[in-house]
């Protein structure tokens, strides 16, 4: 029997995926649950496993190409005898309908297949036999000169992951990301990509065009940029309004200086302050639905992060109100590191119930943020600057202040709700910042 490997839906918004690399080459034996291909979804690179045991008969979509979700990208034959039949099936499916009585040549497929074999072997670093290795583990093993044949895999189905390679050289890595439940409709299922090893990884260069961009040139959007476009267009359908507020940050800045050496960032402090304030305002992290207001059970603060190769992603601090500031900061650093190496799982960037965009770190005074689809509000935070202000006793003084602007869905949130939230956030930051460490 011949089975199709489909382009899986790795997220709810994904409409197409890009083949990063084929881990298996045509003719290779495949075990059920073994990684076959690495696919780039909207915002992450993920391994895709086979639901079937057999042989990779032919690759339909080459590495570097894209395919719509649900489209066949390869064929798996259950027996070696069926491989040639699968190739013929792929060739006949891809051959264009003849425009004249002369039939199309029957031998149009072998050359592309041969090229694909070479590309797949190169991209998989020679993966063969029953050795199941994640792409990151293979790359790490090459860097550290570790013989993969001597390792015992700790991943699913005995798969060798990055942690196994690091353990072989006596180093400790980050915990692996939990696997995502596969979608039952696909013939290939995404599995969790192993977490990157920060101590071993070399600085990742910023992707750039091979040649300088020239005037008049059209540069295609990346997969991530296309995802951002779709989200922004969807946001335009929502009636939003904006509310600004000035917050004095002297106490917050003082606290930050006290705990900065412990790995706490200002973004983490702001996320914590927002999460604590949201506990009093459940409407601010609710969402509009056709049936009414969807009140969310968790305060999941998403924070916008610019990607080096264009676009942005919003890693999510799950239950941010329940984490202490030090755990939250460590979690945030891990999320950012894995976001920039495209190793986040869908649940780690698509489950936010409130979003924070902090352009203040770049010196921006004030701006309005676009509301993410499926959320009720997003807070734009500007930079803190010393300002001359009138004090309560009628004198002048210097205070450090920042401008924040809330963008809200006016179908469920009204001006009074937004104002009350911003007042409580300002009160926490201005008079009770120390409580953020409790």
UniProtKB/TrEMBL annotation:
Pfam family name, one: Biotin_lipoyl
InterPro entries xref list: 2-oxoA_DH_lipoyl-BS (IPR003016), 2-oxoacid_DH_actylTfrase (IPR001078), Biotin_lipoyl (IPR000089), CAT-like_dom_sf (IPR023213), E2/Pdx1 (IPR045257), E3-bd_dom_sf (IPR036625), PSBD (IPR004167), Single_hybrid_motif (IPR011053)
Region annotation (Disordered) ranges: 88-110
Cofactor(s) the record lists: (R)-lipoate
Keyword Transferase assigned: yes
Ranges for domain Lipoyl-binding: 2-77
GO biological process: pyruvate decarboxylation to acetyl-CoA
Enzyme Commission (EC) number: 2.3.1.-
Matching PROSITE patterns: BIOTINYL_LIPOYL, LIPOYL, PSBD
Residue span(s) of domain Peripheral subunit-binding (PSBD): 132-169
Family note: Belongs to the 2-oxoacid dehydrogenase family.
Protein name: Dihydrolipoamide acetyltransferase component of pyruvate dehydrogenase complex
Species in which this protein is naturally found: Thermoleptolyngbya sichuanensis A183
Lineage start: Bacteria, Bacillati, Cyanobacteriota, Cyanophyceae, Oculatellales
């Amino acid at each position: 029997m011949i089975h199709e490997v489909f382009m899986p839906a790795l997220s709810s918004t994904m409409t197409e995926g890009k083949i990063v690399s084929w881990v298996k080459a045509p003719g290779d034996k495949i075990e059920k649950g073994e990684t076959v291909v690495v696919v780039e979804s909207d915002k992450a690179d993920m391994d895709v496993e086979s639901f079937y045991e057999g042989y990779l008969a032919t690759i339909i979509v080459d590495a570097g190409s894209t395919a719509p979700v649900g489209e066949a990208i390869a064929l798996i034959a259950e027996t070696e005898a069926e491989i040639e039949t699968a190739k013929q099936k792929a060739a006949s499916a891809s051959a264009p309908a003849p425009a004249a009585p002369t039939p199309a040549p029957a031998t149009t497929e072998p050359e592309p297949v041969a090229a694909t074999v070479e590309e797949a072997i190169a991209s998989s670093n020679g993966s063969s036999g029953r050795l199941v290795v994640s792409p990151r583990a293979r790359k790490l093993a090459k860097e550290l000169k570790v013989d993969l044949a001597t390792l015992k895999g700790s991943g699913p189905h005995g798969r060798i992951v990055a942690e196994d390679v690091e353990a072989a050289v006596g180093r400790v890595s980050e915990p692996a990301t939990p696997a995502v439940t596969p979608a039952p409709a696909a013939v290939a299922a995404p599995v969790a990509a192993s977490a990157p090893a920060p101590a071993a990884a070399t600085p990742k260069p910023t992707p750039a065009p091979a040649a300088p961009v020239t005037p008049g040139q059209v540069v295609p959007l990346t997969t991530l940029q296309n995802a951002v476009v779709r989200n922004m267009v969807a946001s335009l359908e929502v009636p939003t309004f904006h509310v600004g507020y000035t917050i004095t940050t002297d106490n917050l800045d003082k606290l930050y200086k006290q705990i900065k050496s412990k790995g706490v960032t200002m973004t983490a402090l702001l996320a914590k302050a927002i999460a604590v304030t949201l506990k009093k305002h459940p409407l601010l992290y609710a969402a509009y639905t056709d049936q009414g207001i969807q009140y969310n059970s968790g305060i999941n603060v998403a924070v916008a992060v610019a990607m080096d190769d264009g676009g942005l992603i919003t890693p999510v601090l799950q239950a941010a109100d329940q984490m202490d500031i030090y755990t939250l900061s460590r979690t945030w650093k891990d999320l950012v590191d894995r976001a920039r190496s495209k190793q986040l799982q869908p649940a780690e960037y698509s489950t936010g119930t409130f979003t924070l965009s902090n352009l203040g770190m770049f010196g921006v005074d004030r701006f309005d943020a676009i509301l993410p689809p499926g959320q009720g509000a997003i807070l734009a935070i500007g930079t803190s600057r010393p300002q001359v202000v009138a004090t309560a006793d009628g004198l002048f003084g210097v205070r450090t202040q920042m401008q924040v602007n809330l963008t809200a869905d006016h179908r469920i949130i009204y001006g009074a709700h937004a104002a009350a939230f911003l007042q409580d956030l300002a009160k926490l930051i201005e008079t009770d910042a120390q409580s953020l460490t409790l």
